[in-house]
Amino acid sequence: MRIVLATFGSLGDIHPVIALGLALQARGHHAAIVTSEYHRERILATGLGFYPAAPDLRPDDEALIRAAMDERRGPEEVVGYMLRSLRQTYADYERAIDADGGADLLITNDLAYAGPILAEKRGLRWASQVLSPLLFLSSYDESVLPPAPWLWRLKVLGPRIYGAILGAGKHAAARKLSQPISDLRRSLGLEAVRDPFFDDKYSPDLVLAMFSRLLGEPRPDWPPQTVVTGFAFYDGQELALPREVEAFLEAGAPPIVFTLGSAAVFDPGEFFIESARAAILAGRRAVMLVGPSASRLPPSHPDVGVFPYAPYSQLFPRADVIVHQGGSGTIGQAMRAGRPMVIVPHAHDQPDNALRVRKLGISETIRRGEYRAERVAAALERLADSADAHTRAAEVGVLVSREDGARVAADAIERVFR
To answer: In this structure, how many other beta carbons lie within 10 angstroms of the beta carbon of residue 336?
Structure first.
């Protein structure tokens, strides 16, 4: 089959799609990714095909990231940004599926709004992909929604009442944001759908839930065609740790690793300064992954190593505790490494991910606005000195290390579409 995978986002969104594309290509399929121009070189380096699509959603667009990482309004900002380019995205997807003799299958992620419309218009077989359990907005889950972070506490009312409250919120969001989708569908001669962002966004044939069951077991109100695959990992595993990172690791005890992923790192605020102070207060060595254009860095200190990047798959297992923003990709890598965490959620699925990981007994959560050195140092000392947290994290690491989400997803694709 010739398969086009449509995605947008940060490396936490791109890496699972690369993993799936490589798994499909290893089975003899032709896989290509259509996404922002920003990711062209990274994708082509893997041997997968690449097609550009508008908008060029760049994690290094600091103004966009600041808006996107707003705790309450971030999701709405991102959706609005994507929908302003919806017609161009549709045209770009159309070129991608028509190239090289035509596509047999389209796979779309949550921000690829033009994909389901194109699949319906062209009669193309289609699967959808979800990276976080929050995106199902189940009435059986304590879902932490960025616009209403307190709402999860109403789950005690039961799935009928709680589900009705969630449904009202979904309806209000769809009514506010869906006009560009309705306009495009109308121009293509397609009927309107009631809810393009939630209940009506899934493929009728296959939904790939590409996260661990430790984060989210299937719920009665999930689409019945959902397959939970486990995490799909890709991290440039063929790359060695940078020499300077390796030298720092070899020079002393396992450090605390501080990272904000590949998007929030462009809007760090005082994160790295407070983190360095916290590590020094706790008497711990620290590795800080500050990104390619870091600002507001801490003063030099012999126990604090500051580096632009290191592959998580090789760094995290050598950490003592990992402090991060709670994105789905970072969560998966930290869980697989078997290390306790402090999670500092910014926006989107991150507060929900933080709650789910905390329920596993392997993390603490500190709100972004409360991230101060003294509070962080206290959390680090509790986790670093907790045998229970380390034991439970190691148990989680064993379970997640057995997951092969790319293989399970490829199996499901071949079972449903061949």
So the answer is: 23
Against a cut of 0.85, is the pTM above it? yes
Do residues 368 and 286 both lie within one domain? yes
Q: What is the pLDDT of residues 75-103, one digit of tens each?
A: 889 999 999 999 999 999 999 999 989 99
Domain region containing 22: 2-231+404-417
The residue among 268, 264, 285, 266 whose CA lies nearest residue 276 is 285
Q: Domain tally for the chain?
A: 2
Mean pLDDT, rounded, of the chain: 93
Q: Exposed e or buried b for every residue in 66-88, given b needs 16+ CB within 10 A?
A: ebbbbbeebbbbbbebbbebbee
- Tens of pLDDT along 45-63? 999 999 999 999 887 788 8
CA separation for the pair 249, 311 (Å, rounded): 14
Same domain membership, residue 185 and residue 108: yes
In this structure, the answer to whether residues 163 and 277 fall within a common structural domain is no
Q: Is residue 262 domain-shared with residue 186, that is, in the same domain?
A: no
